[in-house]
């Protein structure tokens, strides 16, 4: 059991494409947010979080309402499934 918690001797090495993409992402984000103050960054974070939460809650609400898309309720072809009575 103790062998499971031993410290690894060799460090984990990420794929070169992953590290290249990560480096490009950090460079792009640094250049986009370079001139913004701390207050603007916090306001953008709050805005993004509120927008994401609203979209998430809307999707949950929409999934539990009775409205169903017309494509799901319309049956143009008869079903081959026999109903059990």
TrEMBL record:
Ranges that cross the membrane: 41-61
Keywords: Membrane, Transmembrane, Transmembrane helix
Name this polypeptide is given: DUF3989 domain-containing protein
